[in-house]
Amino acid sequence: MSAQxxxxxxxxxxxxxxxxxxxQKARECTSYYSNSLTKHPRAPSKAxxxxxxxxxxxxxxxxxxxxxxxxxxxxxxxxxxxKEHTSGNKKAEEDANEDAEEKLKEIKSAGxxxxxxxxKELLRVVTDVKPEVPERxxxxxxx
Length: 143
Known about the structure:
Mean pLDDT: 81
Distance between the termini: 150 Å
Number of strands: 0
Radius of gyration: 50 Å
Largest sheet: none
Shape: rod-shaped
Low-confidence stretches: none
Structural class: mainly alpha
Strand content: under 5%
Number of helices: 2
Helix content: over 70%
Oligomer: single chain
């Protein structure tokens, strides 16, 4: 068992050494690229800041477009919902208008039938004045 343990430990140590070598090579490459004045295909560009700024602007613009599309979609959904649910209100409004028109017609027809009689009665009452003393007022008697 100890042979297997030592073999496993040895394998781990070998893997660790290999990883250290890879890390060291990576450090050397990045320092080479950062110190190098020549353009290498994988070397970081001097305009890294402008690239980053451009990417941020592009991302912001893309996000704004997505927000506008989402807002438009939700507005369309709301308009459809409103249209579906206000159709019942329009029907009720039309029914109420029809009822009101019928009542107006009845009132006008009643007015046209009895209108002359009503006018005559009003004129008679206005012109035939009969002054009366109200019951609550007492008339003083002369002595």
